[in-house]
Amino acid sequence: MKFSKLWVLLLAASFTIMSCGDDDSPEEMVVTTDDDGGMTDDGDNGMSELLAAQEMTTANLTNDGSGKVWRIEQATLNNESGAIDISSNFNVVDDEFIFSGSRTNGSLEWRQGNAIGVDGTSSQETLLDFYKAPVMSSFSFDAESSTNLSGLDGNMTFQVIDENTITGQLSFTEGRRAGETLDFDLTTKTSEDYAAPQTDLQFSNFAVLFNDCVSSCAPGFAGSYADNSLFVSTRAAVNNNNSELVVKYNAETGTEESFLFPQADFVSKQLLVRDDQLVIVGGQYVNRYDLDDLNNPTSELHGKALTRFGTAVQGDILYIIGGGLDNVDPEKIFQYNLETGQLSDFVSLPEPRFGARGTIVNNKLYVFGGTTTFGGSDAMNTLYIIDIATQQITTETMPVSLNYSYVERFQNLIYVAGRIDLRNDEGNNTGRDEFIGVYDTRDGSWTELTTNLTGTQDDFVSIHGMGLFNNRLYIIYDDGLDDDNNPDTPSPNNILVADLN
């Protein structure tokens, strides 16, 4: 089922101060005496009191102008199906409202995170895997009010109840949704309300994927909050022809379904769930599968030749990170518009990158680790942070160097897993190690997680993919060797799962 997304039209909102007029009677005079405090009109006094009250409300709303973060405490979607409580949905919990500025120059930033399926008929149907860019707007007081505000060209209204409570409403005004609303209560977001990393992960077996291409061919791996499913994409050889294999796992039951698309492409895959589609980005093609029918994908060339590249998506824009074959633009990040199919340059990193994966949090693209050459031994410990609005690049240092990184966003946190190739003095591979840590985008801090993973530095067991959804973290963890004592089956690859706090 396809759902409409929570689109918002940004227009400048004007702020108007309503002044009080004189009395209609021209004969009436205002008499000033020595004991009237110098005031000449009750209207002027009332306006002064209104402006003073607006100033006080603004100070509480914005933390004296510097910016105050609010979160949704309760949310109800009112559509043709009735009133639907969506307060605890992941795509509501991730919203933030930041008010800043002054009474006459107020700013509102709505960090909406994942969009809401506003056509849903139940709370479950309003879930949507569709990460959106923050929305910027001005805000202004309604006429003759010190508590009622509006923004987003009047489509979003607020009533300030006290310094820690706001009620709000987003109104839909176009098409068949005209008259429908999203009603919500906001409360001050404190440090305790932000996601915090845990320190330990205990993994257990979830499934086994039999495939010879996982360890060496950069599979795609991701999950869907809305569909509550886990997906793997990689190459499969069928009748001596290379095809794209998609495996879907039900997160609750562990049952699996496999789908083959007979298309020859390079082996590297990146997988993402966007709206009601599974999007698989290969070395040459972008393939789209309807989540309700994985048998009939559509395919289009994206215009590049890639290997061991990374991807991230925000709204309609897919970011393709590095991976240029034959040393063609391996340092570049490209933008691919998923609606129009247009490819364009975005930014050049300071160095080439292969095996470096990324994600987006609040309009910043984070790119972790990787190597400067395809299959290279020079694992990097750099974190590039690219401001999408300005294209400015900031470089930070990671606690480890990773040949391949795997990243997943969870609110303000980024979970980072990685494969570390170990080599001797002659440059030969002697083993592999793994890393799992959490990067907090609020303060740039790292937390390395302990685990019960049993691989050692003397074997080639490592992580080959990571997915995070519905408070669970999944990894592909194996050595890629055909060690199941069954020559008739491909190599087994363990998929493990750990609960998050």
Summarize the model shown:
With 501 residues, this protein is mainly beta.
Count of alpha/pi helices: 2
Poorly predicted runs of 5 or more residues? 1-40
Widest β-sheet, arrangement of strands:
1-3-4-5-6-7-8-9
State the end-to-end CA separation: 31 Å
Structural class: mainly beta
**Which fold name is given in CATH as the topology of the largest domain?**
Neuraminidase
Overall form: globular
Helicity, as a percent range: under 10%
Keywords: Kelch repeat, Repeat, Signal
InterPro entries: Kelch-typ_b-propeller, Kelch_1
Protein name: Galactose oxidase
Organism: Dokdonia sinensis
Per-chain topology:
Blueprint: H1 42-62, E1 68-79, E2 82-85, H2 90-93, E3 96-101, E4 106-111, E5 135-141, E6 148-151, E7 156-162, E8 165-171, E9 181-188, E10 200-201, E11 204-210, E12 220-224, E13 229-238, E14 241-250, E15 256-261, E16 269-274, E17 277-282, E18 285-290, E19 293-301, E20 310-314, E21 317-321, E22 332-337, E23 343-348, E24 357-361, E25 364-368, E26 380-387, E27 393-402, E28 404-410, E29 413-423, E30 429-440, E31 445-448, E32 450-451, E33 462-469, E34 472-478, E35 492-499
Parallel strand pairs: 10-32
Antiparallel strand pairs: 1-2, 1-3, 1-9, 3-4, 4-5, 5-6, 6-7, 7-8, 8-9, 11-35, 12-13, 13-14, 14-15, 16-17, 17-18, 18-19, 20-21, 21-22, 22-23, 24-25, 25-26, 26-27, 28-29, 29-30, 30-31, 33-34, 34-35
Structure, described:
It is a single chain. With 501 residues, the protein is mainly beta. It folds into two domains: 53-191, Beta Barrel (Lipocalin), CATH 2.40.128; 200-499, Neuraminidase (6 Propeller), CATH 2.120.10. The protein contains two helices and 35 strands. The chain is globular. Keywords: Kelch repeat, Repeat, Signal. It holds the Pfam family Kelch_1. This is Galactose oxidase.
